[in-house]
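re: the backbone from monday

yeah here it is again, tokenized this time
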């Protein structure tokens, strides 16, 4: 038996995973003038520097700060985080959000993580650069790290880096759930899931 625990690091998405920030991406897109359905950062990438892009960034910034101020952790998240801290498991946040709104959200709930990687730090998910950066800073092999997130991009980033991925799906299960190794419906079940992941029980 391997005496090392198999999960030594957990990379969390923030919005929709740790906290419900009630971000209305459709309203944000509409106000920014982006087409329906296009991911916001990717939509922005095609806008040249100038007044219009600045206006769009302001809209995004305003929504994100409001999201931070209205954020509420999902049930069971705070207990799970204290459990993993007690277990000596490293924790990180990897988000497509800005550093300012990320820090504001985490501060509001007194949450601390050994790594916080925002869109200012690495190309955003689904690019695996962020998860790889965290693994490198931790000095942990990818098989000892899991990713937990509520969206396809979280799963894709983790998978591309060779990590096991958990989809947090508190409501309906989306079609991209098939990309996930595990599905978590409720953070109050997360310790049980962690035991399963650590022992390799399926
Ligand atoms: Mg999310």
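seq for it, each position gets an aa:
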């Amino acid at each position: 038996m391997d005496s090392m625990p198999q999960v030594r690091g957990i990379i969390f998405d923030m919005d929709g995973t740790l906290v419900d920030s009630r971000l209305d991406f459709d309203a944000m897109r509409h106000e920014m003038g982006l087409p329906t359905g296009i991911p916001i950062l990717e939509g922005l990438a095609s806008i040249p520097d100038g007044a219009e892009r600045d206006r769009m960034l302001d809209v995004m910034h305003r929504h994100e700060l409001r999201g931070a101020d209205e954020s509420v952790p999902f049930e069971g998240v705070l207990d799970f985080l204290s459990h993993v801290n007690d277990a000596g498991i490293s924790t990180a946040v990897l988000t497509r959000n800005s550093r300012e709104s990320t820090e504001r959200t985490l501060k509001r709930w007194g949450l601390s993580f050994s790594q916080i990687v925002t869109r200012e730090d690495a190309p955003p998910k689904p690019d695996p650069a962020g998860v790889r950066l965290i693994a490198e800073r931790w000095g942990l092999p990818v098989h000892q790290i899991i990713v937990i997130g509520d969206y396809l991009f979280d799963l894709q980033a983790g998978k591309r880096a060779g990590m096991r991925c958990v989809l947090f799906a508190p409501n309906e299960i989306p079609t991209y759930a098939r990309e996930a190794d595990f599905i978590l419906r409720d953070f109050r079940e997360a310790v049980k899931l962690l035991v399963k992941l650590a022992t390799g029980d399926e």
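The CA atoms of residues 39 and 86 lie 36 Å apart. The radius of gyration is 17 Å.
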